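User: tokens in, sequence out, please.
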């Protein structure tokens, strides 16, 4: 029975266009992880959020006009439901790592953990409610229909038109990354580095789509982008933890002097790590610029070839 189902699935995949396979793969990732996210599983929340971002990057290539905007808006709602909970999960994981290190006062970690856990419980309940109301089958049906609309390619062949569009989108993402890097310069400015992280992430997802639609197996540049995304993501997460710590110190009914001093030690520890991460980012800038140059040059060659 299982073998028959596998053969049927294989035959179905062979009849699908590359664009349909692209969106089905991303929808399948969301379908696998959303039930776990609804139960509050930390890993599932993260994977479901990533899946929504990948779907959002793919939708403009397969669905234009009002239909495309409606689909993207629908998925964005889900991303926003998952996002705040994921950020709190990361904060708790970072606190666990700090506790294990032994160089941060336990009182500071315990105070932060208490407040973040309370907020996680509140936002987690809201997330579960919004996931329960989300109509995933409707999204799947409309997205697959959009992928097949206006796609004359035969099953099993590539989709050169959408592959070229994907490369053009990646080139625009590369230009945006260069701008963000130039704005960040070489100074440690958290807000501008956060913009670099977002630009890196968007370029990575765009290149994944271009790779899938073109049938390429190239992964080196995508792995580099993921490495830098993770590095800048870690920096951003620590900055958010610093902001939370400062908020505790400044709120009404401020902590006693000992706790305030312990929180100061925690902030200094986090700031030192952020600066070390910034040094690592500075060492990655050359590689990022090389990727941007490659993507824009390749898109230019593709455009010239199409014009000829």
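Assistant: Sequence out:
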């Amino acid at each position: 029975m299982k073998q028959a189902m596998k053969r049927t699935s294989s035959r179905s995949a062979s009849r699908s266009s590359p664009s349909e396979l692209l969106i089905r793969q991303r929808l399948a990732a969301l379908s696998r992880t959303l039930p776990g996210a609804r139960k509050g599983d930390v890993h599932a929340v993260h994977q479901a959020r990533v899946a929504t971002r990948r779907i959002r990057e793919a939708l403009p290539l397969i669905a234009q006009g009002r239909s495309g905007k409606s689909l993207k808006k629908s998925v964005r709602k889900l991303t926003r439901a998952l996002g705040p909970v994921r950020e709190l999960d990361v904060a708790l994981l970072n606190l666990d790592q700090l506790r294990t290190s032994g160089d941060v006062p336990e009182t500071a970690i315990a105070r932060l953990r208490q407040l973040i856990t309370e907020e996680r419980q509140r936002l987690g309940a809201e997330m579960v409610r919004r996931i329960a109301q989300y109509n995933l089958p409707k999204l799947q049906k409309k997205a697959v229909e959009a992928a097949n609309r206006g796609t004359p390619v035969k099953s099993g062949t590539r989709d050169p038109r959408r592959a070229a569009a994907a490369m053009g989108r990646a080139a625009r993402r590369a230009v945006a990354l260069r701008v963000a890097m130039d704005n960040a310069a070489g100074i440690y400015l958290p807000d501008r580095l956060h913009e670099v992280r977002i630009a890196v992430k968007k370029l990575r997802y765009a290149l994944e789509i271009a790779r899938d639609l073109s049938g390429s197996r190239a992964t080196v540049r995508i792995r580099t982008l993921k490495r830098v995304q993770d590095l800048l993501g870690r920096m951003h997460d620590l900055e958010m933890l610093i902001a939370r710590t400062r908020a505790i110190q400044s709120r009404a009914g401020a902590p006693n002097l000992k706790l305030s001093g312990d929180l100061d030690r925690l902030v200094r520890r986090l700031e030192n790590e952020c600066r070390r991460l910034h040094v690592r980012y500075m060492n990655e800038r050359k590689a990022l610029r090389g990727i941007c140059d490659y993507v824009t040059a390749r898109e230019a060659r593709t455009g010239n070839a199409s014009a000829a």
